[in-house]
Each structure stands twice: as structure tokens, then as C-alpha cells.
Hints:
Layout lengths: L1 H24 L5 H17 L2 H4 L1 H17 L11
Helix pairs in contact: 2-4
Amino acid sequence: MGRIVKKLLKILTLSLLISWNISSTSNAYDKTKYLICYGEMTKAHKARGFHQKNRVVSIKVKETVCKAYANGDINDYEGKGG
């Protein structure tokens, strides 16, 4: 009985991983690129005081720009390192 349970768990795990991979590849953007962009833009916004003066707009700008960057629609953004 233990071997059957282990096999079923392996199949379930592989199924979940495959399903997760398919759903994550269907996302419109690269999450890693988005997060890196968001962090670098936050640092740049804080450095010039924009984040503190108008946080709501700063967040909206970062979300919009970083999603476009992660989608490959733009190649650069404020604060981009490297």
C-alpha cells in the first residue's frame, strides 16, 4: 500500500508542477523582471522624493511601467541598473 501511495503522490506532484508551469507561462509578463523593475523604480522614486510626496501615483506609475517592461514592450525605465 505504501508504494502505491508514493506513486500517486509523485503523479499528483508532477501534475501540479506541469499545470503550474503551463499557467505561469500563459501569464503575460516575466514576474522576475517585474519585481526587479519595481524595486529599482521604488529606489529611484524615493531618491527624488516622488514616493513620499505622491505614493499612490508612484505605485501606479511603477505598476504600469514595470508591467510594460516585463512584457517586453519597453526596454528601459527610471532607476534601471546595469
